[in-house]
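Hi U.,

Before I forget, here's the chain from the pilot set. I'm dumping it here mostly so it's searchable later in email.
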Amino acid sequence: MSNRREKTVPLQGIRILDLTRLIPGAFCTAILADAGAEVIKVEEPNFGDYERQIPPFIGPMASRFLILNRNKKSVALNLKEEKGREIFVEIATEADILVEGFRPGTMKKLGLDYESLRKVNERLIYCSISSFGQDGPYRDIVAHDINILGITGFFDITGMKGGPPVIPGVQIADSIAAMNAALGLLIALIGREKTGRGQFLDISMLDGVISWLFDAARYLFAGEKVPGRGEGRLWGGFPNYNLYETKDGKFIAVGSLETKFKNLLLRKLGRDDLVEDGGGITSAELKECDRELESFLRQSFLTRTRDEWMEELRELNICVGPVNTLEEAVSHPQAVFREMILNINHPFAGEIKQIGSPLKFSDFSPNVNRLPAPRLGEHTREILESFGYKSKEIDDLIMRNIVRA
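Structure:
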């Protein structure tokens, strides 16, 4: 990042209209904003993005809003008023991308759907993010991340053997949708270079999670029984790919799937009798002796603290690591070196931390600190003035609650 010479800003000159609320759309446009796109966040004038009200707060700003809405401008515009819609269409005529996350059909009711806007801007790439997609029997059903994970079977394979499903600590369906939207928009931009035309992109949270089920689905597609919670090869069924509690109540993650790594671990722990001879490159099937091995590992790891085990096993380099707290994770030396946690100054929230970009390029460094996350309507005047509106006209629009500045 800072140690890379910036030669180009790939998305500079690309204007994005972001009408989304909450995680999927905000995360998507933040990725593109870090790469230089001008993201205009179009918000309802009275309350704006729901993210603004979700605690905790740093000064007057919501903490998660600061992370997901960096590098964006805010225009507060009342799309329920005809004049507000007229202004929006004006801005859309010069936009490259539009991202919205309303229920299917909402934008059509406002007269701002893709078919309507493509008449004034045939180069517009229009992305709709929703729970189930823009068509199909579930298009009008409301759902959040937890509902999507339930419907897709995610919970059926997540948790301890014999135990209940476990809610993950990250918003998986939301984040997959965000990344799929960003990926799809970049593909559409490349396509527009070839055709000169924009297109419509339909991103479904359900589609995204199902696309990530390839490891579990392979059993089903092969006509075999899908392993249950805590039984699959990569979700708790193998002793050499599992979590183990240590003496201090912390945990260690063993990921020694490859036979060579598994054997090194067994020899280190004095269990040469369980070492595998030649054979497969990686553990593929559960063996009878693996049940004995799991019991042995659980007892063994309870004899020392997590950090003592890490010191003991580090030299082997066999895919064994600590289960860190979040505080430990954000201060991890590799995360710090890779600039995944950054200290920046925000004009209203003061000194804050930002999550860095996971994208590392040779000729370009995504910039998470180009623009601070905006106040509601902070850039309304700037954007309207760029379209020829005079100060008195903007004042009148404010008085009529068409815009907020």
